[in-house]
Amino acid sequence: MAKKTIVAAVQSGRVLVSDGAWGTFLQKKGMKPGECPELWCVTHRADVLDIARSYIEAGADMIESDSFGGTRCKLQHFGLEDRTAELNRAAAAVSREAAGTDRWVIASVGPTGLMTVLGDVTEDDLYRDFKEQAMALAEGGADALCIETMSAVDEAAAAVRACRDHTQCEVICTFTFERTLQGEYRTMMGVSPTEAARAAIEAGAHVIGTNCGNGMERMVEIVREMRAAAPVTPILVHANAGLPKSVDGVDVFPETPADMAARVPALIAAGANIIGGCCGTTPAHITAIKRAVLGLKA
Length: 298
Prior knowledge:
CATH class: Alpha Beta
Number of domains: 1
CATH architecture: Alpha-Beta Barrel
CATH topology: TIM Barrel
């Protein structure tokens, strides 16, 4: 595969496959509640590398990085704020090693957990923290920056601008939606898929999309709305393996690899260009999604 930009690959007609869940995988590797996932990129590098490689071996065209909570304000909870640049560089470098030269690293940038509407933080504060993280991820070898699980337009826009202003990486921006009692989709802050798509594009995102919070079936509806609002921008989907069910106090995600793969044609028909997984998904899910994508070309 001659490596292009992600946007160029999509524009050439390819449907790309992304990776699956990281958090639950880290837990299976032995990460305990209360530990800092990003620190594992240094203290348990071999385990993190194995996760990344497992998704490449499963057929993913791109992989994320163990940097979801890598902003300074998030790392401060662990007393690691002074290691922000180090840990993000390490996270990107691990995924870069696994991806090699012919797959993309779409380094993860998660929300800060702070809200401007509550006076927790200013947009300038958000921009500063995202800038620091973005620059370190780029230095570590990221091809793109995947701003994900967003619920507020102002935070998402600050992240996109910081990434665009201070790196040469492609920028992906995805939001998390829940279905309301009226059957509509909104983020926790009341943002619709239409509003999210337009705001992300206006801020400068190269790729938009949705992740977490929903299984493949509901993602089809969300993608359809985003595509209507953004006719040409590539759309990425990282779906959960269904909606979690509590079994003996443990969240279990019910969708099998075959279940998720069966909905790939509908998701592509709705307008998705890049398909991967979020909570509950495994390398087996990614392999099944890859086979479904390849099967559409047969």
